[in-house]
Specification:
By secondary structure, the protein is α+β, with helices and mostly antiparallel strands. The protein contains five helices and seven strands, in the order ααβαββαβαβββ. Residues 173-219 form the GRF-type domain.
Length: 219
């Protein structure tokens, strides 16, 4: 008698499993999809390609990156964490430039489309500025164009991304023409940062930001 009940129970469970799986498959068949157009519009594509050329192999350019993939709440209790997390869950960065080795976020790029600021756009800008400021991520705004000067973009990004290969970089002093050498600041606001200085110091005191980029095509 017990064996009959066991068999019946197994059959019921099996029927329930098959029915549930069949219904789920039928629900999926009711949804039909199609491929959308380009992920980025023409202006965004122009900036994307310009950023690729500007950073080269020194960075990875990602587009339409969810804020939750870049930053995380630092709330101490669950309620605050939930509120802070929900606040950024539906927003994204236009472009994020990452370290090519670790994919750690280095710079956020926001494209200003030039349209009139409505409440939604203002709120989004305030949110992005607050998030980047509190997380210590540089935020750069770029006005929409149909073409961009790569050299100027490189100079804009050079303060945040290492675009120089030390073994290939040779510089000469713009005052006396002597070779320049790389040093590291040992004190002050720029402690720990690299910079170029004239090899004739102290006779010549000319210095340059280590990551400043000069390109002849923009002259």
């Amino acid at each position: 008698m017990e064996s009959i009940f066991i068999i019946l129970a197994i059959l019921v469970l099996f029927f329930f499993f098959v029915q549930k799986r069949f219904i789920k498959q039928e629900e999926l068949k009711d949804s039909v999809y199609k491929k959308k157009g380009p992920i980025l519009n023409a202006q965004e594509v122009a900036l994307y390609n310009a950023l690729l050329a500007a950073v080269g192999k020194h960075g990875v350019v990602l587009s339409k990156v969810s804020l939750t993939n870049v930053i995380a709440p630092m709330a101490t209790d669950k309620k605050e964490w939930f509120i802070a997390s929900n606040r950024i869950s539906k927003s994204y960065f236009d472009f994020v430039i990452c370290d090519p080795r670790t994919l750690e976020s280095r710079v956020v790029i926001e494209l200003d489309d030039g349209k009139e600021l409505n409440k939604g756009k203002v709120d989004r800008q305030k949110l992005l500025m607050h998030c980047c400021n509190s997380a210590g991520i540089p935020l750069i705004g770029i006005t929409v164009k149909y073409s961009y000067q790569v050299g100027r973009l490189r100079r804009l990004l050079a303060a945040h991304i290492d675009l120089i290969e030390p073994d290939k970089e040779v510089r000469f002093c713009k005052k006396c023409g002597s070779p320049m050498v790389v040093k590291v600041a040992s004190q002050g606001d720029f402690k720990g940062r690299r910079f170029f200085t004239c090899s004739r110091q102290p006779q010549c005191t000319y210095t340059e930001n280590y990551n400043i980029v000069f390109e002849e095509e923009d002259n």
